[in-house]
Specification:
heterodimer, A: 11 strands, B: mainly beta, six-stranded mixed β-sheet, five-stranded antiparallel β-sheet
C-alpha cells in the first residue's frame, strides 16, 4: 500500500534553477493538493486539482505551476527557484470532490533548499 | 484568507493527565472540520472529519467535539501517553476545494 508517493525527498537548488516535484497516488482519489510547510506558518495550499483535467490556485501560488498529468499524478514545478521557496512541500489526495467528509492522505514530503 | 486559529501553540502534559486544546474557525460557509496528528519526521495523519454541528467523534483515548454556530472545535486526550506527543492540526473546509490549516498545537507528554 504505497498511498501517496513524493519524489525527491530532498533537493538543493541554486537561485534561478528549475525543478519539478513529482507526486503519485494509488488510491484512485479524484482530488490532489500541494501544500508548503514553513516554520510558524502552518500548512499553506499552493495549488489543487479537484479532478483530472482541472487545477486551481490556492493561497500561495506565485512562483509555481502544476500539471495534473492523469488521475494518479500531480506535479509541482518551480520555474525559477528563489530562496523564499525554501520549504517542505507536501502532496496530498482525497476522495470525491463533493465528499466533504473525506480526509486528506499526505505524502512524506520534499525538503527543498534554495541557496 | 480564512482565519483558523489553534490554541495553545504548545503544551506540556504529564503522562497520565488528560488535556484538551482548541481550534477556532469561521462560523459561516462551513463544510467540514478536520483534525490531524503529525508526528516528527512523518506526514500528517487524519484523526477525525466532522461535518455536523454537535458532532462528537472518538478514537481510543482521543475525542473531538464541534460547534459550527460559534466556530470552534475541541480535541481531548484522556490519560496522555508518551506516544501522544505530536503536533495536532485542525483544518477548515469552507468550500468545495482545499483545506485551510491552523498552525497546530505542539503537544509534549512528559514521563
Amino acid at each position: 500500500n504505497a498511498g501517496v508517493t513524493q519524489t525527491p525527498k530532498f533537493q538543493v537548488l541554486k537561485t534561478g534553477q528549475s525543478m519539478t516535484l513529482q507526486c503519485a497516488q494509488d488510491m484512485n482519489h479524484n482530488s490532489m493538493y500541494w501544500y508548503r510547510q514553513d516554520p510558524g506558518m502552518g500548512l499553506r495550499l499552493i495549488y489543487y486539482s479537484a479532478s483530472e483535467g482541472t487545477t486551481d490556485k490556492g493561497e500561495v501560488p506565485n512562483g509555481y505551476n502544476v500539471s495534473r498529468l492523469n488521475k494518479r499524478e500531480f506535479s509541482l514545478r518551480l520555474e525559477s527557484a528563489a530562496p523564499s521557496q525554501t520549504s517542505v512541500y507536501f502532496c496530498a489526495s482525497s476522495e470525491l470532490r463533493g465528499s466533504y467528509n473525506s480526509p486528506l492522505h499526505f505524502g512524506n514530503g520534499t525538503r527543498l533548499t534554495v541557496t | 484568507i480564512l482565519n483558523v486559529e489553534q490554541s495553545p501553540q504548545s503544551l506540556h502534559v504529564q503522562e497520565g493527565d488528560s488535556t484538551n486544546f482548541t481550534c477556532s474557525f469561521p462560523s459561516s460557509n462551513f463544510y467540514a472540520l478536520h483534525w490531524y496528528r503529525w508526528e516528527t519526521a512523518k506526514s500528517p495523519e487524519a484523526l477525525f472529519v466532522m461535518t455536523l454541528n454537535g458532532d462528537e467523534k472518538k478514537k481510543g483515548r482521543i475525542s473531538a467535539t464541534l460547534n459550527t454556530k460559534e466556530g470552534y472545535s475541541y480535541l481531548y486526550i484522556k490519560g496522555s501517553q508518551p506516544e501522544d506527543s505530536a503536533t495536532y492540526l485542525c483544518a477548515f473546509r469552507g468550500g468545495a476545494d482545499g483545506l485551510t490549516f491552523g498552525k497546530g498545537t505542539h503537544l509534549i507528554i512528559q514521563p
